[in-house]
Amino acid sequence: AWQVAVDGAVDGWRGQFWSSRPLDSTAPGELRSRIGYVWAVTPSLSIEVSGTHFWYVDAPIKGAAGHSFEGNVRMTWTDRNRWRWGLESGYDIRFHSRVLEGSVEYDQPLPRWGTYLEGRLYAGQNMADEVLPDAAGTDVRDSYGYWGADFRLHYRISWHTTVAENTHTKQPVNQNQYWSPQLIGSGGRTWFGLSASYEF
Hints:
By secondary structure, the protein is mainly beta. The chain is about 0% helix and about 65% strand.
């Protein structure tokens, strides 16, 4: 897929517009717009409230949502060893879904190469009352767990420009087939990506 994103931050406000267009896949294209606010409760504890609007392009399943909106609350605590522990809950008004996710993140400096490795492990549970909200006369529910890991290796090539290698893996457990991009129910997925970002 080709993916493009624009991120911005002003004081405690955070915003993002993100777009993904698959090149050869049954997964739908997607557009996201997100805005949130972060409160620094203490130097090591923060709370973020955010809302995300999703647009799905060319969904492969009849009755799948064309768009949805999700609200989230996330708490992040950084311990004395710089491990970041997160707990997040969210609710989607189209799928009537509730999600609870825990995560731990750590940035490992690699001074020999002039970079660092960003790592994240996470696990959660998603419960939805309407998997196919745009299908008339259906009542498809689902509840599944999941776990995964993200890794990103950064290289700053100029004052404003960074390139990164990204690896993401996710494993759902007992997922309904209509929630799976492969349309075959539960199955692990792994992504590899290269990205470039410009900061100003």
